[in-house]
Amino acid sequence: MQRLNVALVGQGFMGRAHSNAWGQVGKFFDVPVRPMMHTVFGQEAENPRAFADNWGWRNASTDWQSVVNSPEIDLVDLATPNFMHMRPALEAMAAGKACSCEKPLAGTLDDARAMAKAARSTGVKTFVWFNYRRCPAVALARRLVREGKLGQIRHVRARYLQDWADESVPLAWRFQKEWAGSGAHGDLNAHLVDLTRFVTGEEITEVAGAIAEIFIKRRKLMTGVVAGGITAGLQSAEEEGDVTVDDTVLFLARFSGGGVANFEAARQATGNQNANRFELNGTKGSLRFNFERMNELELYDATAPRAVQGWTTIMCTHAPDHPYVGNWWPDAHPIGYEHTFVNEAYDICRVLAGEEPVVPIPDFEDAYQTQRVLEAAMISATEKRPVKLEEVK
Q1: Nearest to residue 113, comparing CAs of 326, 374, 336, 299?
Q2: What is the CATH number of domain 2-131?
Q3: Cβ(342)–Cβ(28) under 8 Å?
Q4: pLDDT confidence tier of residue 173, bands split at 50, 70 and 90
Q5: Which of 8, 51, 192, 222 is the most interior residue, by most CB within 10 Å?
């Protein structure tokens, strides 16, 4: 069996999710190439050696350039803050490495454009970790739409609501434009745009209007480094700094099939811990998904006799009707967040072996199209006008 030497650039929350995926995928899936956890990069303060020992990486480094250019590495996996995506991605692709990257593709549209251009010119395989595509319920939603179960889609409603970013949270990198690029918009709306493009098979052609707001304009500076979750382990200093990214962004949009949509991303939506939701209304039916109940998909069949029409809850845990679950547990033994990353690691291995993925993976070009929508929404919010996607090159 061919071996795939993987290098992980970044630690933290996403570093843990990716490390778990690379460590588990060969145990649950019959992978066509076997990933080897070769090297992890981290800053000296993050103690990459300790991270490597805990998660099963053979080597640790504080020099990302030597890692991505090493002749021993086949795939460079980027799990850093958004502003750090472009440089190692460009070097990795120039060195002929396959490259996978956390979402959004980059901190800025210019960086994302450069990454997509480099992927086209080098011809290397690229992947972006829009992991929610790997929920069996989301994959089923996509299949039902393509089978015509919903008819023509007229309305798309998408919300990603969290409530972790209250006043007690210090000024982590996610609240600073120079590092994150944007706030809830790039972090959460990026998922919604990708999911709705993926499920509907349509493109967003116009952002008709948008609102962006910062509710907590200053936060206490942080001390220490993140230990695990989004802000776990961070301590606050007495001094404060400015928040330079959005807390929430709402926007209206049009899809290429004629449907209209609304998107909402928020980090201070009290009572919503990780409510990643979308609903599609079509001429023949509707469906809706909520990641907080990620193993379920709700379907309304408007072609059934009126007397028995109603929302049906589908438990998406039955193999082979629902993808991936045959490699996990029996019916109604639910999978969780971490499984979506393992499922994607499997599909990456399939693509690198010349096979088709179980579910399509966004490459850099695909993720760049999502980033164009995000940019259009921010232009609309700033300039208070509709923005056609053809304006955003």
Answers
A1: 374
A2: 3.40.50.720
A3: yes
A4: confident
A5: 8
Helices of type H across the chain = 12-28, 48-55, 64-68, 86-94, 109-122, 136-146, 177-180, 184, 190-200, 337-352, 364-383
Residue 54: pLDDT above 70? yes
Average pLDDT over residues 135-162: 98
Q: What is this structure's pTM?
A: 0.95
Asked if 264 and 277 touch (Cβ cutoff 8 Å), the reply is: no
Classify strands 2-9 and 75-78 as parallel, antiparallel or unpaired. parallel
Superfamily name and number for 136-329+369-382: Dihydrodipicolinate Reductase; domain 2 (3.30.360.10)
- Express as a percent the part of the chain with pLDDT over 70: 97
Distance CA 247, CA 81 (A): 17
Judge whether residue 152 has pLDDT over 90.
yes
Using left for φ > 0, alpha for ψ between -120 and 50, and beta otherwise, residue 306 falls in: alpha
Q: Which residues contact 193 (CB under 8 A, 6 or more apart)?
A: 158, 204, 263, 370, 373, 374
As a whole number, mean pLDDT of residues 351-361 equals 97
Taking CB atoms within 8 Å and a gap of at least 24, the contacts of 219-228 are 219/167, 219/169, 219/170, 219/171, 219/175, 219/243, 220/170, 220/171, 221/170, 221/171, 222/170, 222/171, 222/172, 223/170, 225/12, 225/43, 225/45, 225/46, 226/12, 226/13, 226/172, 228/13, 228/16
Residues of the chain with CATH 3.40.50.720: 2-131
> What is the C-alpha to C-alpha distance for residues 261 and 280, in angstroms, rounded to an integer?
9
Contact 343, 358 (CB under 8 A): yes
Query: In this structure, what are the phi and psi dihedrals at residue 159, rounded to the nearest 5 degrees?
Result: -135, 135
Q: Which of 316, 317, 324, 321 is nearest to 359 (CA)?
A: 324
Reported in sequence order, the residue ranges of 291-333 that DSSP labels E, i.e. its strands, are 296-301, 311-315
Distance CA 19, CA 226 (A): 16
Q: Comparing C-alpha atoms, which of 225, 261, 286, 257 is closest to residue 377?
A: 261
Average pLDDT over residues 209-237: 80
